[in-house]
Specification:
The protein is mainly alpha-helical and 346 residues long. It is 86% helix and 0% strand. The chain has 2 domains: 153 residues, no CATH class; 156 residues. The protein contains 10 helices and no strands.
Length: 346
């Protein structure tokens, strides 16, 4: 057997083993997806709130510091939701009237050059949508009930995530030392190095993506408010959460904002919002990500894109959110373990 063929065979069986391990990991996470989601969210909250608890613990007992940090963040989140709800409720009558006039303007715009859509085509489309909803009423109801089940799962995962994050923030170091102490002596140093690298990469990515998402949301909110687009705050909040899906989340959220602008303010304001998509995408890709993500492992944009697409195929939106931090952690652990360990202290 030639050396090249022998080398290819050696790498092939290793890749097969890695592929089987990854498939088994995702299969296990799929069966216990609720627990996996809760632990992931708990780690995210820990990465964000651990510095706050450490700062408060300099003046307060550790349990009180953790409680104040958790309650303060929860109250801040509920206050944002309350402000968004108040904004939607206050703008709803005006928004409904503007949407009615906006739909009529869009229809006239589509009927004029260069589109020249027939007027009866638009009315037929509205009638078909109405007939579809009437004939598939059972499907709509079952989908709503499924959505209610999903809501219960979301609340359960959120409660479990809060429960886990409380203990991670309060005594995560002791939990990690206990786990490391159960391992054989020869594995403790490599596991310690790998764990430190993994947590550094995860916290760096989490804090970085939150800062990027907050910056995008502030820019979008200010721009939509200046342009007079309704629901500026809810659309900015949508941009914040969408930014957690790299590369594709922000454009999708801004596309929703463009549709709202088109229906309420006309095509020129919508065109400005589309231009805003390009500008914010450039700021995010060339300024924010290189600057902020230097805290974590730097990944090539091709790797990020492949990770997002693969994660969305494997587990939908949740997979797209989890894929990049997971790849960052794996790459950080690989980079640490492939280097020789530092000599023990004298």
């Amino acid at each position: 057997m030639s050396p090249a063929l022998r080398l290819a065979a050696a790498y092939a069986w290793r890749l097969i083993v890695v592929g089987v391990a990854v498939y088994a990991l995702f299969a296990g996470l799929g069966r216990f997806h609720l627990v996996a989601v809760a632990v992931f969210l708990g780690l995210v909250l820990t990465a964000l709130l651990r510095p706050v608890a450490d700062l408060l613990s300099r003046r307060l007992p550790r349990p009180a510091a953790v409680a104040i940090g958790m309650l303060g963040s929860l109250l801040l989140f509920l206050a944002v939701l309350y402000l968004v709800g108040e904004g939607v409720a206050g703008e709803w009558p005006t928004l409904r009237r503007e949407f009615g006039g906006g739909v009529a303007r869009i229809e006239r715009w589509l009927e004029s050059p260069p589109f020249r859509v027939r007027p009866d085509a638009l009315s037929d489309l509205q009638e078909r949508i109405g007939r579809f909803l009437s004939s598939h009423r059972t499907t709509v109801i079952s989908t709503a009930l499924t959505g209610a089940d999903r809501a219960v799962e979301v609340l359960t995962a959120a409660a479990l995530a809060l429960f886990c994050s409380v203990f991670f923030i309060h005594s995560g170091d002791r939990m990690w030392r206990w786990f490391r102490g159960q391992l054989p002596l020869r594995l403790r140093r490599p596991v310690e190095r790998a764990g430190t690298a993994a947590w550094t990469a995860f916290t760096g990515y989490t804090r970085g993506i939150v800062l990027v998402a907050a910056t995008n949301a502030v820019l979008v909110g200010i721009a939509l408010f200046v342009l007079g687009v309704p629901l500026a705050m809810p659309l900015a909040l949508l941009e914040f959460f969408a930014a957690f899906v790299p590369l594709i989340g922000s454009p999708v959220a801004l596309a929703v904002a463009a549709v709202v602008a088109l229906a309420t303010q006309g095509p020129w304001i919508a065109a400005i919002v589309v231009l805003l998509i390009v500008v914010i995408g450039q700021i995010e890709g060339h300024v924010l990500h290189p600057l902020v993500m230097s805290w974590a492992v730097r990944l090539h944009p091709v790797v990020v894109a492949l990770s997002v697409v693969s994660g969305s195929i494997a587990a939908g939106v949740l997979g797209a959110v989890v894929a990049v931090p997971l790849v960052s952690v794996v790459w950080a652990v690989y980079g640490v373990l492939r280097k020789p360990p530092p000599p023990p202290p004298p």
